[in-house]
Amino acid sequence: MKNAATPSKALIYAGLGFIALLQLLPFYFGLTTASKPKTDLSSPWVFPGEIHWANFQTAMQQGHILQAIGNSALVTVVSTVLVCVLGAFTAYPLARRITRGNQLVYACIISLIMIPPLSVLVPLYTLMKDLGGLNTHWGIIVLMVTGNLPLAVFLYTAFMRSLPVSIEEAATVDGAGPLQMLFRIVFPMLRPVTATVAILAGVGIWNEFALSTYFLRTDETRTIAPAVAGFFASQGSNPGAAAAASLLSVVPVLLAYLFLQRSFIKGMVAGSLK
Amino acid sequence: MTVTPTPDPTDTVAVVAPGRRLNSATRGIFPRRLNWFYVPALVLFAVFSIYPLISGVSLSLTNWNGYSRSRAFVGFDNYLRLLDDEVFRTAMVNTLIYGVGSTLIQQVLGLGLAVVLDRIARGSSLLRAVIYLPVMVSPVVLGTMYYLIFRYNNGALNDVRALFGGEQVAWLADAGVGIAVIVIVNSLQFVGISMVIYLAGLQGVPTEYYEAAQLDGATWWQRFRSITVPLLQPAFATSIVLNLIGGLKLFDVVQVLTGGGPGQSTHSVSTLIGETYFSNQAAGYSAAIGVVLFVLIVAVTFVLNSLLNRKRVEL
Question: Which residue of A12, A165, A272 is in closest CB contact with B119?
Fold first, then answer.
């Protein structure tokens, strides 16, 4: 009972294949450009006969890409852990003590999600300068935690409210205090939502550029996105090295995506839908 | 656009499930001192979110240059200046184009992809993963790679033109083309998000509806229009809010692909704030643009949320 107006399977696959190739195309050009010496003026469509590794060397030595990857790893891991821990702590009373006051606190925290990072650039930069947090990792970590925490609180609160109270009731009867209850009873139940929060915050922080480009200006502290952008801007005549830097910076994310693809997509969607 | 999910700040009441309110039974288990748990976060927000917002408004009323010790109160001068500022007006228009343009492309393409992906069995998850891939990558990195397509010498696009005897074009040297390229790059990068939102929505449509419609002799298009589209209402709302707000905040792609140039013609409001502060050393003026951006995003969020009356898609 095939309907005449139904697009045929072949057409569907052709269309989907085209979009998928389109999505891979920039990476392909990145790869071909990074694999050619500066003197090779062949089209980026053409794959080189042999791979020219010097571009990757230039990216590491002059672009400090490995250092930037290390910096990003540090900032991302510390910030993400803090977002998860602080998020769960903050959400617990908001989920379990639903009073007028707490509803107001909750509404205020959720409203903070709307602040575009650049809209407070001047006052935030001035504040960080006064606190001595410019070009420091603690400075950018504080900003990343503050920026990602409202959404984490939102996700944790929603999840905690869906958990039955009965387990905590039983624990209270057994004489557990609030801290004990949080650590022994509640935290172990938070696994699924913690995965979502960690993925959302982790990817966002690893890729963050808008603030880190202004707050981290030394090679020693720069994270990966501003490092690639800075190197790209300085290598106008050497796109091969810039492409190599871009490719190197993608490797950690790609590896994570390859192994955790399902939970990545699910986590990102869950975060956007809630 | 960065992936910034936007829960609706106006619907806190809806989140509170009935019957879960604090009563005498739960009051004992969750004593008042539990509230201490959110105090550290509140301190953090007070210092690094609320204080900057307030201090931004007060800085926007001065002529501060960003480093000098002196600054004078100038009232609303900065805001009045914005009204006559050609560069700001361009950035504002561009920002709307980035936001609305990306939103349109992402809805059409994302919904199209979702509909066809939903119909095929083989290779569906692989295709989905590939189309979603750029979401994971930094816009800076993706912008760098797209530059290889649009640059003048050895650009992939110019090489294709050369193949057909066309002339080399300096694509990004033209404001109009630059704006279009930025919209396309941003749309393609994040189309995966719309796609998976619509896929999740489609999976919630009961197949019996389609079967019944088919029995009644409805064509594919009729079924799509009268069953799929209305039932996807919540998905539309979610995806549109997410894409529009993300597009209005656009910074990374603009910064990397054009740096706001040629001239000042492709700036978004976000990139203009950075340039006004650091290159033009007009901190007070930059703070004023920041306040405008903040108000714009808040206004759009509230208008959209009330217009779309959004409900949630279950995954």
Answer: A12
Contact assignment for B51 to A33 by CB distance below 8 Å: no
Contact between B148 and B158 (Cβ < 8 Å): no
Inter-chain contact B146–A26, Cβ cutoff 8 Å? yes
Instruction: Say how far apart CA B114 and CA B122 lie, in whole Å.
Output: 14
Q: How many structural domains does chain B have?
A: 1
Select from B4, B164, B281 the residue whose CB has the most chain A CBs within 10 Å, as the one to mutate to test that interface.
B4
Cβ contacts (< 8 Å) between B274 and chain A: which residues? 118, 121, 213-214
Residue B277 is nearest to which of A96, A121, A127, comparing CB atoms? A121
Q: What is the pLDDT of residue A268?
A: 66
Residues of A in contact with B31 (CB under 8 A): 178
pTM score of the predicted model: 0.88
Q: Which residues of A touch B259 (CB under 8 A)?
A: 233
Answer yes or no: is B81 within a domain. yes
**Which A positions 40-79 lie with beta carbon below 8 A of chain B?**
41, 43-45
In a domain, B25, yes or no: no
Closest CA to A214 of B286, B91, B147, B243: B286
pLDDT band of residue A57 (cuts 50, 70, 90) is confident
Mutate to test the interface with A, among B39, B44, B141 (most CBs of A within 10 A): B141
Please list the pLDDT of chain B residue by residue as tens digits (315 residues).
344 444 544 443 334 444 445 554 555 678 888 889 999 999 999 999 999 999 999 999 999 988 888 888 998 999 999 999 999 999 999 999 999 999 999 999 999 999 889 888 788 888 998 999 999 899 999 998 999 888 887 788 888 888 888 888 888 888 999 999 999 999 999 999 999 999 988 888 888 888 888 888 888 888 888 888 888 888 888 899 889 999 999 999 999 999 888 889 999 999 999 999 998 889 999 999 999 999 999 999 999 888 886 554 443
Terminus-to-terminus CA distance in chain A, angstroms?
39
Q: Check residue B203 and give its pLDDT.
A: 85
Tokens of B159: 């090489």
| pLDDT recorded at residue A171 | 83
Residue A114 at interface with chain B, using a CB cutoff of 8 Å: yes
Residue B304, min C-alpha distance to chain A (Å): 13
pLDDT surpasses 50 at A262: yes
CA closest to A262 among chain B residues: B129
Determine, yes or no, domain membership for B43. Answer: no
What are A186-194's contacts with CB under 8 Å, separation 24+?
A: A186/A88, A186/A92, A186/A160, A187/A88, A189/A163, A190/A88, A190/A156, A190/A159, A190/A160, A192/A159, A193/A155, A193/A156, A193/A159, A194/A84, A194/A88
Residue A174's pLDDT is 82
Q: How crowded is residue B211: how many other Cβ atoms within 10 Å of its Cβ? A: 10
Q: Is residue B9 part of a domain?
A: no
Task: Kindly report the length of chain B.
Answer: 315
Which domain does B135 fall in, by range?
A: 61-311
**Beta-carbon separation of B41 and A204 below 8 A:** no
B180 to chain A, minimum CA–CA distance in Å? 17
CATH number for position B113? 1.10.3720.10
Interface contact flag, A151 B5, Cβ < 8 Å: yes
